[in-house]
């Protein structure tokens, strides 16, 4: 074979079938076929062991798309190239590194041509590489197909709701995720974690994505997958089928359409009118802009040998043609009435090269209706004034009417200017003349600037009584002036305008301050106006300090929240603590009430409460009134918003009342006893005559009265019925007498809520809810029932009956609570509390009442009678009141108990004329009673009614009852009538009544049976001493005579 042709030589392989021997060979094979095919050639090559040639042929056929099955099967079978021991080459022959290559072809390398051995080996290795790649691609394709089949099976199919929780991760997914996780760790510098992760997954190569095992595209990194997740997730929205009615009456549609058409037409007309106005304003703007250009050009041009024309205003009756000639240049400008504009000389014309070079004069020729000799009258608005700002007084004034016929005059502009200054001299030191000279070319802003300069000189020369006339001018100038220093000076003038401004003048200044605040905004208001207030906070004049205090309140709503709760609050706090004038403190308290209504910082609540406490302890009645009627309602609103009304504000006031009485124990524990009447009896003896600060006590009760509407609002707006407020179909009319009269506007509950309809509906639902036999209570109502009412009862028990004003204030407070909270609440919640005290057990009745240790001898009786039982003035309540008073009268009489509580009740009830008849009926029941104790008590009670009852009742009801009791068989009963008879002598002027009383007293004087009645004599003397000074002179003489006899 060494002598034969080398099958690995390319030239021989390429030219083998082109040689004559090949043609001869082909011709000598007529037995096979006349057509030579590629398959026969491949068979021949394989048969003759031309393996390399067959390989090259196979490669070229594959590249051209004509692959032969014979060659493909041959080269795809590794068994065709395996070697046996007999076929092993010589030891000196180099081998390839592959075990599945053409090792059997190594013998063919022993060719005469040794230079081709390297090339032949490279070709074999390239073939092996291509085969390996084909095998890998085939295996990956098979794996991918299997993976896709697994993913499409129902077991692993995702639903619209997401992956099932029991899905198992497949190996392919595990390798892919491991690769992405490792990549993320490396990119974010978690190297140690990446190394640990790689060691735990030794079976995977993290350097090559192909190790994952799929011929699919590599996904992006984890961060990209996370960011892109939201683009593929559709949120699940819950939907419901809703039906709506769309039937609308055709007439309504037509009416709505007509209304819409009318509205559309009106809007179109309005748009048209506005467009016309815009056109007019644009024309006016153009005219004004031309004027501004003229004013800017005129004073700045100073061209030698030229006269400076400014502008020519058109004549409204005829057209004017202005011809302006420069040396060899002639320009003509025609101004018509329809154009309504001005034609000024521009800067380019004034400084043209021709003007500079020729230096010729400017001649103004006015042609009016073709007449060259007529003069032109310049308008007053366009005079040329040159003001030297630095010198402050240099001006050039042109005559109002300019007639220029000097066409041939060669006069320089500087000479003309000097001539005018010499002929019409104005002093440079005259301030007013300098200001007047600036008016000609001043616009709106210049006017404001001029006012800023002039007002400081005007104000001192205005009479004090008329200086308030300057307030609008000062405020307007301060608002519009551009210089902050000038604004500060003007505002300082405003606050110092009047030495001692009275109330009306202060109102004018404050109104101006409010207008200033509305115009400039909170920033400038804080920076410019507040410092003026701060400077005057300690002014020696009270009127100035009043102005500062009132300004703080008036400006509070226009300042930022931070300034309100810091600077403004600090100023008012300082004035409240340090100012000694009560008028200033009153104004401060009113401003504090206004300020607290706008404070949003809840941390300032405690400071506000301290200021309220300080104001309510002030010794001035003015300050106290302002604190009660302005500051307290404002603070109560804030306290209610923060949920601190009951447990802080009201609790603090009640605690002060208890401290004044000296009872610090909790009222809840005191009312937990099974015998509340006995407990009240034990306390009554201690506190009946308790000394207390009456003024402070009355003030605290007044505070509670002011807070009752706010407490009711808290109960009203938190009830369970509020959920059904929207279901109230009709407006519920509110009874005008439903609530008691408010002491001030800020305590009116309709004003506090702000909506009468809302209030009426809430009251309707509230009454309906609590009128039920059983209802579920809520926290605010429980606080009133279980905390407020018991503590007020305890306070009432501790008040001494000698303090008539305190007793009256307690009655008014309880009555206000009952009227505000309604009849149902009073019947079901308040009356049972009082009944527990006044209804004593039978076994303790005689002993406790006799000692005066019961609620019947305390302030509970007047409070219950005048505060609870007379609230709603119904017939049933009047009957119950009369029966209650009878029972108390009889009980106290039988037990010989003190009558102070009953007398206090009669005094409070007697202050209302509507109760006189009821009281007389009660006393008449005592007059006709069988017990002398009861009759004696009734006789003494008449004294309390005589002062307030009219003469008719005195003559028809009181005097007959007293005469009957004066003739009673029992002496103690007769003695009990003497004080009442004396009261008639002291207060009644009716002659018939007085005569009857005189007769009865004369009986007491002259009857011998009374001479030995020491008690009778003492009572007569005491009564005569009391009433003698207020009786007629005749009776006084008789009294003297009786006293002499008895002595």
Model description:
There is one protein chain. With 1047 residues, the protein is an all-alpha fold. Helix content is 60%, strand content 2%. It has 43 helices and 3 strands. The protein has a 3-stranded antiparallel β-sheet with strand order 2-1-3, with no helix packed on it. A hairpin with a 2-residue loop joins strand 1 and strand 2. It is elongated. Mean pLDDT is 75; it is low at 1-33, 84-111, 153-165, 299-407 and 663-690.
Give the SSE layout:
Blueprint: H1 10-15, H2 20-27, H3 38-47, H4 51-63, H5 69-76, H6 117-151, H7 171-187, H8 191-200, H9 222-229, H10 250-297, E1 320-326, E2 329-335, H11 347-350, H12 353-358, E3 362-367, H13 413-423, H14 431-437, H15 444-458, H16 471-480, H17 484-495, H18 503-535, H19 542-554, H20 561-578, H21 582-596, H22 605-616, H23 621-641, H24 645-661, H25 667-670, H26 676-687, H27 694-716, H28 749-753, H29 756-770, H30 779-798, H31 804-821, H32 823-838, H33 842-851, H34 860-868, H35 875-895, H36 900-910, H37 916-927, H38 932-945, H39 951-966, H40 971-987, H41 991-1006, H42 1014-1027, H43 1033-1046
Antiparallel strand pairs: 1-2, 1-3
Keywords: Coiled coil
Biased composition (Acidic residues): 8-18
HEAT repeats: 958-996
Entry summary:
This protein is an all-alpha fold and 1047 residues long. Helix content is 60%, strand content 2%.
